[in-house]
Structure formats: structure tokens, C-alpha cells
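Researcher: I'm comparing several assemblies side by side, and this is the next one on my list. It has 384 residues spread over four chains. Same procedure as the others: predict the full complex and return the structure.
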Amino acid sequence: MARNVEFDESLAIQKAMEVFWKKGYNATSLRDLTDAMQINSSSLYNTIGDKQELFVRCVQHYTDIRKQDWEKRLAGKRSPLSILVDYIHEAVNVIINGESSCMAVKTAFEVATNDERVKQILVADDQRAYNFLHDLIKNAMEEGEIRDDEDPALLADYFNSTWTGWYESFILHQDPVKIKRMAEYFIKQLTK
Amino acid sequence: MARNVEFDESLAIQKAMEVFWKKGYNATSLRDLTDAMQINSSSLYNTIGDKQELFVRCVQHYTDIRKQDWEKRLAGKRSPLSILVDYIHEAVNVIINGESSCMAVKTAFEVATNDERVKQILVADDQRAYNFLHDLIKNAMEEGEIRDDEDPALLADYFNSTWTGWYESFILHQDPVKIKRMAEYFIKQLTK
DNA sequence: ATTATTCTGAAACAAATGTTTCAGAATTGG
DNA sequence: CCAATTCTGAAACATTTGTTTCAGAATAAT
């Protein structure tokens, strides 16, 4: 027998995520957040919690979206190699068109070393990325789409860590061609 | 006709760098810095300047050290490939034994997007890293130490961006074997 | 030794930080 | 409509932030 929460919580999380994503955890103030979320700090503390808790929810939300993307790609029922190549091209597009790098990467370097909860969310996310790549590589090998003289586990680890450096490169040089050429070399390694 | 600065400025920069390196720019307070540097904030502002200026000096110092390391390695007069392989092994050691990741990488993601001066220091540093790799790869090709069917410029870019992901991987998994295996695969690609 | 200049320490500064308080508006179920 | 409960807005909170002030200690050159 009382009123309900007035604001849309998942929309508010989305807005907060965008601010954290762009500015990073420490450079984002509570005012930045409540402005973007369009709620009062009392509502924030009553429902979600403090800044740390909100950040955890945002990182979780970010990784949830990625998880859905991977699932959708696998459900496509296309050949393993074409899913893989599609994914790489899309990753390149995100890097060269996105305006604030990858939140998971930024968070790994800024926060994960000091916050165990955040780290565990990123570890789980990384594990899903690994599984996505590993399964595609393994299946592509079994179907003869790519050479099979390397361990799929090694290749999955290796490729999974490769994108991170492309983000850094693009922050420094803003050179799309550089990224595209690296991606082409990357694909060539797999297939030839 | 007056007294001189009492503290050792380059030692103070070194101490400040260690704090920034570990905690990042935004999570480091002026108190953290003056405590580590063992000077009063008035001395800091009289000599070096404000927090931003101090950070710039620290990043510059960090990249200066790297520059010296590259020069020393090239002066070694050993074969290009052995210099390269040595360097990769040393990079792995730094990743798996260092206790706070790479300051250049962390700074690229946390600060370089918002601070043009810091970004330019990192761009110059990245260019030196690129040159180091490019020259070694090119020379190794000319001396027949490695295959020469790829563009040295592409390989230098590609390899230069690869380490960054290894740092991220180690933050999340703290698994030295993972890093070592990726490094071995990395070297194998070059030589085989 | 004197003097002119510069450095240092401690305190003070305003502004910004993350968080809490609470009166009153709102809305639910009865 | 009532009453009980919960939400919201604005203000206030104590800390912490980056930075400045300034009196006095220190020292270089004369």
C-alpha cells in the first residue's frame, strides 16, 4: 500500500553506463550520474545503492549485452568461419566508429585491479568471449575451413587478447587503415 | 642570492610516477603524491606545477626510460632476431612479474582521450616502439633470419599492439602460462 | 655580517566529492 | 475516501579535493 518507483531502472542503468563508459569510474561524479539518469541521489541510494554498486550494475549490463550478441551470432547457423570473419569485421567497425573505446577494456585497466567484484564480472565476460572463439575455431577446423595444425585453445586465447591492442592503437593514432590491415593479416593467419 | 631547492626533483618525479602508475591519474590525490614525494605542496607548485603538469612529467619520465631501454638493446650488436626474441621474453617477464601493469597502456585508456599533451607523449613513445620493431624485423628479413613474405611495417604495427592484450589477460587471470604460450606462438609465427 | 631573495611548512581556501536526512508529495490496497 | 507506506526533491552533511597563502627559516652573493 504505497507508491512504486517512478523511474525506469534499466533505462537509468543504461544512462549511467554511458557516462561511466565515456569518462571512466574515477572521473565520473555522482552529479554526472544523477544528471544523466535524471533522478535524485536519494532515489539512487534507495534503489540501486552507492556509486560502487551502480558501477557494478553498469559493468554487468555492458557484459550482458555482449553475451547476447555472441549468442545471436552463434544462432545464425552459418559456417563457423563466416561467423568468425563477420565478427572480426564488426569488431573493427566498433573500434573505428565507436566514440569511447571498449568499456570492458578500460575497466580492466582502471578498476579491476582494485575491485574484486568488478574483476569477476570481467573474468566471466572474458571466459564467454574465449568460449565463443574457441568453439568457432574448433568447428572450423573440424569442417576443414581453416588449417588445424594449432591448438584451438591457444588460438582462442591469442585472438581474444588481440583486440585490446587495436583499441589502444586507435586511441593514439585514429587511423582506420592501420586497424583494417591488422584485421586482414589476422584473418589471413587463420585461413592460409 | 638565495637558497636553492632542497629536494631532489628527479627523485621526486620518480616517486610520483610510481604512485600514478599504480593508482592511475584520477584515483591519485595530491596528498598521495606529496606523501610519496616527501615534499610540501607549496614546494610542488613552486617548482613543477599542478597535478596535470606533474602527471605529464611522470609519463614523460616513464617513456624516457623505455626509450633508453630500446637504445641499449640496439647497441648490443647482436643479431636482429635474437634482440627481438630477447625483447619479447623480457616483455613477458615484466607482464607476469610487474605489479601494476604498463603505465603507458593504462594512461592511454584513462587519460589520453581527454588530454592532448599526454596523448602526444604516448604517440611519440608508440612511434619509437614501432621503429624499434620495424627495424629489427626488416633487418632480420634481409639477413635471412626470418621469412620475408610480409610487410615489415604491418608486422611491426601488429606486434606492437599485441602486448597490450597480454597485460589485460594477466590482470584478469594472473596466469603466467597463458602469457608464455602466447609469446611462444608469437615468436613461432615470425620464424617459421 | 648583512641583505636580498627564495624556499619550506603549516594552515587555510573554496569547490567538489559521495552520502544522508527529512518533510511532504504520491500512490497503493483496503 | 482513508490510511499506511514509499518515493521524491531539495537541502545539508562531513570529507576530501586541488590549490594558495604567508610568515619565517634558509642560503647565496656582496
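Model: For your comparison table: The interface with chain A takes residues 24, 26-27, 100-101, 105-106, 108-110, 112-114, 119, 122-123, 126, 150, 154, 157-158, 160-169, 171-173, 178, 181-182, 185-186, 189 of chain B (CB under 8 Å).
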